[in-house]
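Example 9 (inverse folding). The structure is encoded as follows.
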């Protein structure tokens, strides 16, 4: 799967607080997810953490001074221009005060003043400092000006052993906030239900019928929908994939279980969801009987009776009165290009869906990249070959567009 921050340029500003050690974990998570991270230190940051740690993690020297003899041009201007996101971890009371009053008295403050990209700050301080009217006023100014988004602080134990609101958010939450700040927010507060992975139909305690779906496409769609602001319910068959940040995951096994989870997520009259993306490879049949004990080998042939599973998507399509939820189906076929598109067109009507994402079995299963056709009643759009995470966005563009049209 393409990493969530693939190629994104992030300036990570670290200020002087005990929580600064967690900024190293944030840097690590961002780099692992493909970001280019430039660490900036306030002068007091190095009292708490070492520049060598951040340089080692990010692969770039840490910058602290505004004016350095070896730097051509103005550092704060260059960093501000280059960065797609300024992430301040931790943000001390002093730094928030300086930012709120528009100071430019060190590299971090000057960069923040110069940035037009989103700025996300993770405050960390003693609860008494956080609740102080001065800090609250500064935070109110920064958030009110619309130039800084905050992640945390949260309630918990702080370095002194005291409890209260002031503890810095955990690295994973900070990274989720960074991702959210980078993406378009065109699915904000929409409820998007995504199914992913294979279904597994048990035959006996050790044997089952399943398919080769890895779940990567559905997980990529869930991750991107969350990054674009949606509340995402990801209903997944058995996969080895980690849950994307900010996504509510429901694990299921069989098609019947998946249908029950989809029904719950869509709610009565399908009113609880704005879109259903059926990326799961749902098994069409299940054994007529799941044996409680392991089937023993016999002398002759073994006949398995299979009974049809419900068609989850077609059932929702048939029940949908109007245009909500937007319905996205997938079609995996092993056939010629023209035939794949023709099958997809037929599924638009047979399943009563808004778009069918058609792909070739040979291109799709288990791979990180894919090549698909978005087949709608208006035409066909060919996408890829591209990483599945990049294909997720055009699919969600279609969903966002449909939802906008519906108001
Ligand atoms: N699907 C579903 N329930 C099923 C089978 C499929 O909801 N029991 C959904 C899939 O998640 C996918 C779409 O229907 O979004 C198309 O699935 P596909 O297997 O390609 O189509 P089928 O209807 O099973 O047709 P066929 O296998 O005969 O091509």
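The amino acid assigned to each position is listed next.
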């Amino acid at each position: 799967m393409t990493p969530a921050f693939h190629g994104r340029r992030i300036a990570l500003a670290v200020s002087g607080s005990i929580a600064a050690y967690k900024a190293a974990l944030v840097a690590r998570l961002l780099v692992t997810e493909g970001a280019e991270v430039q660490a900036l230190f306030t002068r007091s940051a190095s009292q708490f953490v070492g520049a060598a740690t951040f340089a080692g993690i990010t692969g770039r020297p840490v910058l602290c001074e505004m004016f350095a003899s070896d730097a051509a041009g103005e550092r704060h201007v260059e960093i501000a221009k280059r960065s797609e996101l300024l992430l301040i971890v931790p943000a001390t009371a002093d730094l928030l005060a300086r930012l709120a009053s528009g100071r430019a008295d060190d590299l971090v403050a000057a960069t923040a003043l110069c940035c037009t990209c989103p700025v996300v700050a993770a405050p960390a301080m003693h609860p008494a400092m956080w609740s102080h009217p001065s800090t609250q006023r500064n935070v109110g100014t920064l958030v009110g000006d619309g130039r800084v988004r905050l992640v945390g602080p949260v309630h918990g134990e702080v370095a002194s052993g005291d409890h209260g609101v002031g503890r810095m958010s955990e690295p994973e939450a900070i990274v989720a906030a960074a991702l959210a700040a980078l993406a378009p927010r065109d699915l904000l507060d929409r409820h998007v239900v995504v199914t992913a992975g294979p279904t597994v139909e048990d035959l006996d305690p050790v044997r089952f019928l399943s398919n080769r779906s890895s779940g990567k496409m559905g997980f990529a769609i869930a991750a991107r929908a969350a990054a674009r602001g949606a509340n995402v319910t990801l209903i997944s068959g058995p996969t080895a994939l980690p849950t994307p940040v900010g996504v509510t995951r429901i694990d299921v096994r069989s098609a019947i279980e998946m249908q029950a989870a989809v029904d719950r997520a869509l709610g009565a009259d399908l009113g609880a969801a704005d879109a259903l993306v059926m990326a799961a490879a749902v098994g069409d049949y299940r054994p007529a009987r799941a044996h409680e004990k392991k089937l023993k080998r016999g002398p002759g042939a073994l006949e398995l009776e299979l009974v049809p599973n419900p068609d989850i998507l077609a059932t929702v399509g048939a029940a949908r009165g109007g245009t909500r939820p937007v319905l996205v189906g997938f079609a995996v076929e092993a056939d010629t290009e023209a035939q794949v598109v023709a099958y997809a067109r037929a599924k638009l009507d047979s399943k009563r869906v808004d778009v069918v994402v058609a792909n070739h079995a040979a291109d799709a299963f288990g791979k990180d990249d894919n090549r698909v056709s978005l087949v709608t009643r208006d035409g066909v759009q060919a996408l890829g070959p591209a990483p599945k995470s990049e294909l997720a966005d055009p699919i969600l563009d279609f969903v966002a567009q449909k939802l906008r049209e519906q108001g």
